[in-house]
């Protein structure tokens, strides 16, 4: 089969590799029908995730059809259409028993496209299939469903739930990339009073308004002053960091009100300053987290019911699976191309409509 293989920092190739086989009785092999690229894949290619070794197939988000299952798999069968979650779960370890699948100690967690071969391929082997793939309701298209493999559960669990968004709250989301936009979309499930999006790129602020943000402001145009004005000097109830740089995290801690929550979602490669000399007196809660994807079944039900209408607006570019290198190029140059999510359809896809 063909797959996108990481060859070391700065190098990938779309090339022939052996078809994946079942390695364990709990595995399934999935034919990939829709797959997307994540900002984290770009971090890997840059060399920021050194545990990814050359030769690994990238990708941790996909929709496809089950072609083969091991003898222990009970919940899916060949022919089933499934969502492949970015997080696998053994279901047995102490963390899986607490729904903290991201922290799985039994061989799950974020393994696809990281520690084992991933989804940017014609076929993928998924470990612990019973807990790591989700059968898809017919009403959900592959293109929409693939957004639930990572970005929607991440924005919802690590942003909205950790940030404890409540009705009437002022919610600030710093960073309006796919993760920030998914946070904006799912925060609305809790009827906040207003959502303010902060980013450096005007195209991303426009996307935030399209996704339901009430106000937007450039990160370098004084978001602190705007939040202060809008909240009569109190600060925001919830501030979500969806960038992953120290400046953004520090800005979040300047915008939160006493008693408020700062939910960090961004993946940080450098230390950020924690200004305890200012924060200690404010009763502030700061959370961190890797997505667990425990919310994926709920998000799928909402999507099937038409309650996540904005999701598909996030797909800006569509490609055939074989155009992987072109898709990476468009995604990596998001500022020029306006790319948010690029979706690639496999040879047997029926719902990713690739323009001729
Ligand atoms: N915690 C998790 O489980 C988890 C899961 C997936 C992704 N992530 C992380 O979430 C972050 C966001 O992901 P994404 O795919 O949306 O990334 P992205 O790069 O597409 O979006 C980041 C956005 O932040 C903006 N930005 C950059 N510097 C800024 C600044 N100083 N202030 C305000 N905005 C700024 C950019 O213009 C961009 O729109 C990344 O760090 C990613 O690795 C975390
Ligand atoms: Zn991802
Ligand atoms: Zn586990």
From TrEMBL:
Gene3D superfamilies: Medium-chain alcohol dehydrogenases, catalytic domain, NAD(P)-binding Rossmann-like Domain. PROSITE patterns: ADH_ZINC. GO terms for molecular function: oxidoreductase activity; zinc ion binding. Keywords: Metal-binding, Oxidoreductase, Zinc. Residues 8-344 form the Enoyl reductase (ER) domain. CDD domains: FDH_like_ADH2. SMART domains: PKS_ER. Its cofactor is Zn(2+). Pfam families: ADH_N (PF08240), ADH_zinc_N (PF00107). InterPro entries: ADH-like_C, ADH-like_N, ADH_Zn_CS, ER, GroES-like_sf, NAD(P)-bd_dom_sf. Belongs to the zinc-containing alcohol dehydrogenase family. This is Zinc-containing dehydrogenase. It comes from Streptomyces pristinaespiralis (strain ATCC 25486 / DSM 40338 / CBS 914.69 / JCM 4507 / KCC S-0507 / NBRC 13074 / NRRL 2958 / 5647).
């Amino acid at each position: 089969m063909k797959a996108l293989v990481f060859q070391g920092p700065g190098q990938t190739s779309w090339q022939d590799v052996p078809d994946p086989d079942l390695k364990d009785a709990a595995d399934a092999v999935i034919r990939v029908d829709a797959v997307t690229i994540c900002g984290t894949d770009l971090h890997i290619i840059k060399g920021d995730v050194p545990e990814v070794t050359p030769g690994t197939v990238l990708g941790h988000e996909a929709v496809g059809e089950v072609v083969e299952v091991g003898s222990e798999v009970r919940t899916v069968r060949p022919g089933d259409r499934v969502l492949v979650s970015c997080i696998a779960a053994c279901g047995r370890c102490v963390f899986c028993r607490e729904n903290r699948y991201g922290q799985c100690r039994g061989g799950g967690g974020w393994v696809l496209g990281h520690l084992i071969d991933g989804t940017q391929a014609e076929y993928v082997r998924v470990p612990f299939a019973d807990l790591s793939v989700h059968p898809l309701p017919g009403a959900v298209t592959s293109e929409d469903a693939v957004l639930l493999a990572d970005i929607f559960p991440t924005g919802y669990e690590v942003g909205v739930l950790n940030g404890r968004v409540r009705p009437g709250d002022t919610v600030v989301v710093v960073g309006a990339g796919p993760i920030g936009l998914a946070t904006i979309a799912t925060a609305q499930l809790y009827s906040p009073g207003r959502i303010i999006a902060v980013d450096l790129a005007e195209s991303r602020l426009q996307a935030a308004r399209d996704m339901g943000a009430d106000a937007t402001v450039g990160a370098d145009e004084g978001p602190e002053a705007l939040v202060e004005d809008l909240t009569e000097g109190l600060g925001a109830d919830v501030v979500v960091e969806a960038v992953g740089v120290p400046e953004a995290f520090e800005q979040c801690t300047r915008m939160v009100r006493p008693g408020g929550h700062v939910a960090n979602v961004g993946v940080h490669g450098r230390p950020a300053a924690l200004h305890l000399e200012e924060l200690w007196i404010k009763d502030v809660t700061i959370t961190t987290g890797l997505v667990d994807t425990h919310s994926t079944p709920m998000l799928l039900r909402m999507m099937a019911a038409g309650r996540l209408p904005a999701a598909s607006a996030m797909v800006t570019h569509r490609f055939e699976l074989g155009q992987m290198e072109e898709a990476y190029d468009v995604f990596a140059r998001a500022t020029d191309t306006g790319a948010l999510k690029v979706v690639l359809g496999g040879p047997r896809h029926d719902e990713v409509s690739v323009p001729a």
